[in-house]
């Protein structure tokens, strides 16, 4: 038995079915890779980049698990229902839901347009609600489910010039806590992770094009480095696993010590 197989046995992730929104890139892609390594079947949701989504599917299948990609706009409830319907058609169940899809776009409040505000709320916050709304009835019937919502330090302390993003991420935190108490009696655990700076394409404009700013950001993090997508994926996989079976309603800070919230 390989080390990965032993870990999978202990975590009880092998054979589970996971849906990852925004699963073709960044944190979502890293989560898909880690779950596939643990023997979890993968549903990769994506908005536009079918090629990237297929790469994730191919890699997962190469690890011996079943995987599909589903294009769906999860800001629309019908898109979320399509995503879950496709999952059930292929796998007959949905065990793990990773609410990862999101955008980071902002402006000073007196320059922020209504469309910019709405876009952040609809994708980040409403998009979390839609997929939960579509998946939870099936989890309740199974008497089992793991939901992990990808929030942000911005939802804990705010973020100047990104008030729309901060509001959406703070809403995710409150939503996590509300669902955890609502769904606990049904065997469904609901948790969130709150990353700080992560080196993904979403933050590339702020990090990759300005080495001085990147160094300054890293210097403000007690651990002295900006997280990789896999630094966030590991805790997400943990919260999806049997090892976290008595954890619900938790906001797990994964920020290198930059924001200390109890």
Summarize the structure.
The chain has 262 residues and is of the alpha/beta class. The chain contains ten helices and seven strands.
Q: Can you tell me about this structure?
A:
α2 runs parallel beside α3 and α5 packs parallel to α7. The termini are far apart. This protein has 262 residues and is α/β, with parallel strands linked by helices. It is built from 10 helices and 7 strands. The protein has a 7-stranded parallel beta sheet, with helices on both faces. 48% of the residues lie in helices and 14% in strands. 44% of the residues are buried. The longest helix has 29 residues. It has one domain: 3-Layer(aba) Sandwich (Rossmann fold).
List keywords for this structure.
262 residues, alpha/beta, Rossmann fold, 10 helices, globular
Percent range for helical residues?
A: 40-55%
- Write down the overall mean pLDDT: 94
Name of the top-level CATH class: Alpha Beta
The gross shape turns out to be globular
Number of helices: 10
Measure the end-to-end span.
39 Å
Number of strands: 7
Strand order of the largest sheet: 3-2-1-4-5-6-7
Uncertain segments are none
Overall CATH architecture? 3-Layer(aba) Sandwich
**Gyration radius, in Å:** 18 Å
């Amino acid at each position: 038995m390989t080390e990965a197989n032993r870990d999978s046995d202990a975590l009880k992730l092998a054979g589970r079915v996971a849906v990852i929104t925004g699963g073709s890139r960044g944190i979502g892609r890293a989560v898909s890779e880690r779950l596939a390594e643990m023997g979890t079947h993968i549903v990769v949701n994506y908005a536009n980049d079918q090629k990237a989504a297929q790469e994730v599917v191919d890699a997962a299948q190469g690890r011996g698990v079943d995987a599909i990609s589903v294009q769906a706009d999860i800001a629309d409830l019908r898109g979320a229902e399509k995503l879950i319907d496709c999952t059930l058609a292929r796998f007959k169940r949905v065990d793990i839901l990773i609410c990862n899809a999101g955008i980071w776009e902002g402006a000073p409040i007196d320059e922020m347009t209504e469309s910019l505000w709405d876009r952040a709320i609809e994708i980040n916050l409403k998009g979390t609600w839609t997929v939960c709304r579509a998946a939870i009835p099936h989890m309740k019937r199974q008497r089992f489910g793991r939901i992990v919502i990808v929030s942000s330090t911005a939802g804990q302390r705010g973020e100047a010039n990104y008030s729309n993003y901060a509001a959406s991420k703070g809403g995710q935190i409150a939503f996590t806590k509300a669902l955890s108490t609502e769904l606990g009696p049904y065997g469904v655990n609901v948790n969130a992770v709150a990353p700080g700076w992560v080196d993904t394409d979403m933050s590339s404009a702020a990090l990759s094009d300005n080495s001085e700013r990147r160094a300054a950001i890293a210097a403000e993090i007690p651990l002295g480095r900006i997280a990789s997508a896999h630094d966030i994926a590991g805790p997400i996989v943990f919260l999806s696993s049997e090892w976290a079976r008595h954890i619900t309603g938790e906001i797990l800070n994964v920020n290198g010590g930059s924001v200390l919230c109890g």
